[in-house]
Design brief:
Blueprint lengths: L7 E6 L2 H9 L8 E3 L10 E2 L1 H4 L9 H7 L4 E3 L3 H16 L5 E5 L2 E5 L10 H16 L3 E6 L2 H8 L7 E3 L5 H5 L12 H9 L5 H7 L1 H8 L1 H10 L15 E13 L4 H19 L9 E8 L4 E6 L8 H10 L11 E10 L4 H11 L1
Parallel strand pairs: 2-4, 7-8
Antiparallel strand pairs: 1-6, 1-7, 2-3, 5-6, 9-12, 10-11, 10-12
Helix pairs in contact: 4-5, 10-11, 12-13
């Protein structure tokens, strides 16, 4: 670990897609805006704060959002516009540091331990970034300042919208103690349930169990939980995150049987391959070794099947053939229907590393 604490920002645009729509169309301001296509298969991409007061949230089925808020204004997403605004925001970040790790179009980590601007503190840097975003994009952003990434991310949500929250190194343990364990990264509903069986509801409860007991119960993950409970996280901001997977997926108008998926798999393989060719054209030119088939059943169960052939796929036809064949490894009843299918390429390696392996074993 570093002896000197890092200064990390997590900057998160407020209700980003919905806020862009309200900015660009004055008639939408002050109204409950839901960014989503209408229809039984659609999900909410974003909800304005006016819509959130009715319980509407991102990733919620659009039909449920409509039931919760009948007066909502539904606006189809315009990702070209959102990406343009995101680029503006990234340019503002880059005036301060080149250690920027985008998480999505609307949020990013920044390491501002050392900055180009020479501002006196991480707090001053966060204030300057938020002011520039407001002035140049006419949108608002919230920010968290902390000595590591996961605490900064929690902090950015503390005073939303249009807020700033600072957790200094000596405040980390006290800040985390009363939080539900579900706020820790990697602690989902299943782990929350397992911890609840041990009488653990808060981070303070988790600390009380002790590192040895957690490691005995959960292995390496238990050790990691103990570290997180004490605010220990040394993961650096990674400006260039290597590609892990390139994929394309589609949700159908009506659920289909496995035997009916081939044309859709082939179409999605073409989309994934087009994205892969762009990746291959970059200076890194990394090579994918694994083909992935993703399926979601009508009752929302997600399955993935993958294959790593002896040689990396070299054509879209090969990817499509492998993805179609992976259906044979789905062991659900033939009557099962599927609402979504996806095709992906993963297992990326550097081209020179792959060549070296061929030289070694060829």
């Amino acid at each position: 670990m570093n002896d000197t604490p890092r200064k990390i920002l997590h900057v998160d645009m407020d209700a980003f897609y919905a806020s862009v729509e309200q900015r660009d169309d004055p008639a939408l301001r002050g109204r409950p805006v839901v960014v989503a296509w209408r229809g039984a298969r659609s999900v909410v991409c974003a909800a304005s704060y006016e819509a959130r007061t009715f319980g509407v949230r991102s990733a919620m089925p659009a039909v449920r959002a409509e039931r919760l808020c009948p007066q909502a204004v539904f606006v189809p997403p315009d990702f070209v516009r959102y990406k343009a605004v995101s680029k503006q925001v990234r340019e503002i970040f880059a005036r301060h540091t080149d250690l920027i790790e985008p998480l999505s179009l609307d949020e990013a980590y920044l390491d501002v331990t050392h900055t180009f601007t020479g501002l006196p503190s991480a707090t001053a840097t966060a204030q300057a970034i938020r002011a520039a975003i407001r002035e140049e994009t006419h949108l608002t952003a919230s920010a968290g300042v902390a000595p590591n990434k996961f605490v900064a991310k929690i902090a950015s949500d503390w005073n939303k919208p249009d807020g700033l929250f600072v957790v200094r190194p000596h405040q980390v343990e006290a800040f985390l103690a009363p939080l539900p364990v579900g706020r820790l990264p990697g602690v989902g509903k299943v782990m929350e349930g397992k911890l609840a069986e041990l009488g653990v509801a808060t981070v303070a409860d988790l600390r009380a169990l002790g590192g040895a007991a957690l490691e005995q119960r959960f292995g390496r993950w238990g050790r990691r939980l103990h570290e997180l409970a004490h605010g220990i996280d040394d993961h650096p901001v990674q400006p260039e995150r290597p590609t892990m997977q390139i994929s394309a997926e589609d949700t159908f108008e009506s659920d289909l049987r496995l035997s009916e998926l081939e044309p859709h798999i082939r179409r999605l393989a073409e989309k994934a391959w087009a994205g892969y060719e762009k990746e291959r054209a970059t200076p890194q030119g990394r090579i994918a070794r694994t083909v992935v088939l993703k399926l979601k059943t009508g009752d929302f169960r997600t399955l993935t099947r993958s294959l790593t052939p002896p040689e990396p796929p070299t054509s879209v036809t090969e990817v499509a053939e492998i993805a179609c064949a992976l259906r044979e490894r789905v062991d659900l009843p033939s009557r099962t229907r599927y609402r979504l299918v996806g095709v992906g390429l993963s297992g990326f390696v550097d081209a020179d590393r792959l060549a070296a392996q061929h030289d070694l074993f060829g």
